[in-house]
Specification:
261 residues, alpha/beta, Rossmann fold, four-stranded parallel beta sheet, two-stranded parallel ribbon, 7 strands, 10% strand, metal ion binding (chains A, B, C, D, E, F), zinc (chains A, B, C, D, E, F), Creatininase (chains A, B, C, D, E, F), Creatininase/forma_Hydrolase (chains A, B, C, D, E, F), Creatininase-like_sf (chains A, B, C, D, E, F)
């Protein structure tokens, strides 16, 4: 099997292939996601499947290893993921989540990688994804770890107009809505329950949180704003924008590493 | 000593006074801060001293207990607090910070409080302040915990014009800059080293993080944008806006509790 | 989308589909694996991909939910997985691994499942997979948790003869060897690097362990015995046997639940 | 601002001032306290406010940095602090407390301090304050950490006569009694609820502990012996004795460091 | 085997015997010790062997179960146990020690015991032995846990004169000295290396601690004061006094339980 | 006291004796056991007392230090130890158990030992005994740690015939049965309640586990197969076999160390 046919996904690679990539200073980009309700129309695996797809696409432009992905995230919160009151959501405690990311980083460093990227799709992981990177960095100051807590592209006014012609609901409410539904429609349309796409919105939108969870901060469906404007074409365009963003970060941070494809 | 003269600050109260407040369902509002560099001109205690002052002011409008404050926060990050490379900053590991907040909440619940607010001044505490609230809420579902991760007032265009007539640097860079310097000038001007106020700005501003810390994402002085436009008058006005914001949240969440003063 | 077309894999399901399955007392079977070297010819994802495939097959005979899978396992050991000296292996510390399994079980119980199975493919997870089940069971005594630490079928003398006509190396050494290579050849042959299949065996085979790792207890390739006798046909037959075993356990433990398909 | 006017309190200092003090090998003395009931007449902040005052006084005689203080301590126990049955007391679990002290020490070492003192006012912190010092010392053997678990001066017979002319109740019962009440009267008399000063004593005094807490080992008021003999003058004298003690320890342990003022 | 011949030591009992004792509300008294240097003349198991012997003697007067003993303690400190610089000492971290005691208590409660005593011989365990008792008590408020951190009898002036005719060195320095050497001489003289008994004393005796360990706070031999005055006869008398003390506590706390023998 | 009379048991040794053994590279062999029900006829201390006796015997053939033993093990499981539903069993949580073994190893390394053996008698400790060895080995790569999770001799067909003339029940069910009963009869017959020896066997024997514990996987007595064929003579022979096994491992792993006696 020649190198040109080495798989891009970490879990499809063999150990000598991984060792070779690490030895060549190829950046390893770790999709960090969640298993979380995404409305009645999208799979609960959304938060780790979509970044894996996007990074696989990015691997066409820059030499990277995609994965190993982290399929579980920190607890869902009402205003960004719907909240822990939904069945189906499988979240980790903060301490568990941080330990997993710490161990994954540690093992990748042990495997020889010196350029690592945490590519986080799940908003609630913010902060919790930085701490394990910090701890591993303290012990291994010779490696570089890039923490992308927010992987969104820049939604310029033009892009907002293109995606949300009616009105931009704000990124916080873009859960199981236009972005993610469009991406699924583009990448794996058979897993979208199209007949269940329907508008929804929280009764209350505030800039603080309440416990026990105030269900009015979330929605009944789990989509925090309307997925109705989604389309496969928007998913194709969004993929380009996401790829563009990660390629830009890779170029800024690892310009002398790995090289282009 | 009559109730009307009961101190507002938790650490100044006696246990019977605290028990009485808890029994009367008075909300207890916990300033959560940090011990962190704030440039050459502001004290490292900024992040817990300022919210304590603001809440003491708020206590003139609504009956609340202020404190016990948490003087240590999660690790400083370059783009929001300057980063862990600064001497003087005393941060907690994520697990330590979460345990402290969890224990403080648990003990306040044991003391009889049923309305609790985490009032967080330190941006990096986001998320880490939610987890302990979640854990305590699971065990004590009868109490209500409000988590204010971002306590800033709404900086309307008019207000931005008023505070930053030249240009708004963005809230992320408002560290040891106009807001905090003005507040110190208003509340305790003798602790402001006025002669050391000088403009500064990071060489790089990006939407991701890098470890080991890339010093270009922070500044040499520790102020992330210019404190030069600060003034005591702005501090007075800002205090009003902060008070207004917390009073609004108190009213929304505890409208039937405690009552007005 | 009708129930009959509900996906079998947890991460492909939506939250209402999961809630419905949980409410119908369908057993949820969690593939617990590892990310671990499997010789130069098999992907490092072997230990979670293969059980997912087998359980998907089992789902044709009994109504179960497959997943969410745990893609990381406890540290690889020389005599059963090759050991931690291999690049590519991404293991968790014992405490991290147990926390992940605990959280996954806790969340599935919260989601309404009352019949749970830990289906463990990675030998080194033994014990570590029992502890979190014990902890969750203590808190939720009304749910039933079945812990399958060893999911192998009974390799009767006839079956041994069929799989290893030359000589049975023992199950401990069946790492990246006949069983796993055959299963990949049957389920996803394009990921088998067939040209790299070659015999190997440890220099030392003992019934104790040594640290730092004695490389003679493992092999240079990572396969602990020869994968040469593997075949897609054996993979097909093995799948049947594995399915038969799990169906038997499901019937013994959940005979009154869920029903047959 | 000249060095001579650098504040003594850590939280009032700026990071360059702290860096300068650390670079000059000035000892940093950390008041470790508690938030704990101190009878109906004293604030719950007693255990960290009083040592801060005393050390600020000591800073007149030796160059030290005072703080950052630790305002929370290990659980209150009946025979020394009244016990966890009192509202208002906000204690940390042992693990939390030790983590906080460990992090504070670690950060001060990172900031450049090489001479550190844990100045503990809360009896129940004994032992728990040593462990984090031990852990940090193992990692940073080049720094010196002095652990003062008991900061009391030597109460000679003459001094006992002076403070407790009637009878010395023993130091264990000196909680919210003569020593602490006198110190408050001297340092901040407006926070003493003088009209609520009244004698009290436990029904049982034994040399073991009982759980659940036997309330007879504590008192109804929270004062473990009578605060009635307290006076501001005694507070002044006590301050001198406490200062004398800490100065002596500083001189013994850091004789070649920092110098006198 | 009749009940009258049931062994007194927990580890010699069978499970039905233990169940019977628990069911009869017999107090279980847990010797908590250490594995720690005790000079050149005494075994490192002193701190758990001696209390076991004394409690076995006490079992002649009151019906108790002795054990299970905890043979490891918290870190040795210079002024009370010689310190962690001695080979042979096997100490636990604070967190480990507390977890062990917590688990032992939890399991005894699960086994049916309702009267538990922690009988601590190792000074440094103070505090660390209280926390696990507190945690278990919170979860099992129906059981009574007595925590004897200091098991010494009252050394009245007469007794001091009898034991230390020359001069009482203070209990803190009574490590591997008169008390423990005498007890070994009485209970198991063949394990005393009599020819190695020699006087020793620390160069410095202070009321604070220093890290890294200042060896002058300990001694070269490990005995903190002279064991020369020890004798088997003193060991016999001391045993009586220790027994008397524990019997008194048992009677005070469990007067209505178990009954006398 | 000459070296030839140095005790073999760690807890009987003095610190200079231990330091001398460590300095001479004598292997330290740590019996790791449990406190667990062993039927109505055997003491709950079986799992640490028996290995201590066997190793003391082994010390006649090779120079080793025996101990410090670990008297507590991981939770009992139905199919190997009877399970956690039995009173009398005192198990540790996984995290506690691993921490204890880690600390014991760490302290022995600090004491100078470079050859360490974990000699595990309790089946359920498997895995949990490897993790702490791994952690300590990472920090101290110059020491050698041998992990004997299974200390059984090779039960050849001849030996099986000799021990179980009727039928070999399998090692998993050899709990409180022929092996352990025979060993007690040989080493300390007075602690065997001979009149209570009776056959027993589980109602169900399966290759998976169930929680909450299915009592049918265990027995009413606690013996998992019949102890009736036990005899003191078998205990003598078994001791020889166990000694032979450990001597063989010592010779294989430490051939150049310590030397023979």
């Amino acid at each position: 099997m020649t190198e040109s046919t080495t798989p891009v996904l970490y879990h499809h690679m063999t150990w000598p292939e991984i060792a070779a990539a690490a030895g060549a200073d190829v950046p390893v980009v770790i999709p960090v996601g969640a298993t979380e309700q995404h409305g009645p129309h999208l799979p609960v695996g959304t938060d780790w499947v979509l970044p894996e797809r996007i990074l696989t696409e990015a691997a066409r432009y820059r030499r990277i290893v995609v994965g190993p992905f982290v399929p579980f995230g920190y607890r869902s919160r009402p205003g960004s993921g719907g909240g822990q009151q939904f069945p189906g959501t499988v979240s980790l405690r903060a301490t568990t989540f941080m330990s997993v990311v710490e161990d994954v980083l540690t093992e990748l460093v042990r495997s020889g990688f010196r350029n690592l990227v945490l590519y986080n799709w799940h908003y609630e992981n913010s902060g919790f994804v930085y701490e394990p990177a910090f701890l591993v960095s303290e012990r291994h100051p010779h490696v570089k770890i890039v923490v992308m807590e927010d992987v969104n592209p820049d939604y310029t006014p033009e892009r907002r107009e293109q995606l949300w012609p009616a009105a931009f609901p704000g990124l916080a409410l873009e859960h199981a809505a236009v972005i993610e539904t469009s991406l699924w429609m583009h990448h794996q349309p058979d897993l979208v329950r199209a007949d269940l796409i329907a508008p929804d919105q929280p009764e209350r939108v505030v800039n603080h949180d309440v416990l026990p969870i105030d269900a009015r901060l979330s929605t009944a469906s789990g989509a925090l704003s309307s997925p109705v404007p989604a389309s496969a074409e928007k998913g194709r365009v969004l993929t380009e924008w996401f790829v563009e963003r990660v390629v830009q970060v890779l170029d800024e941070e690892f310009s002398h590493e790995g090289g282009t494809r």
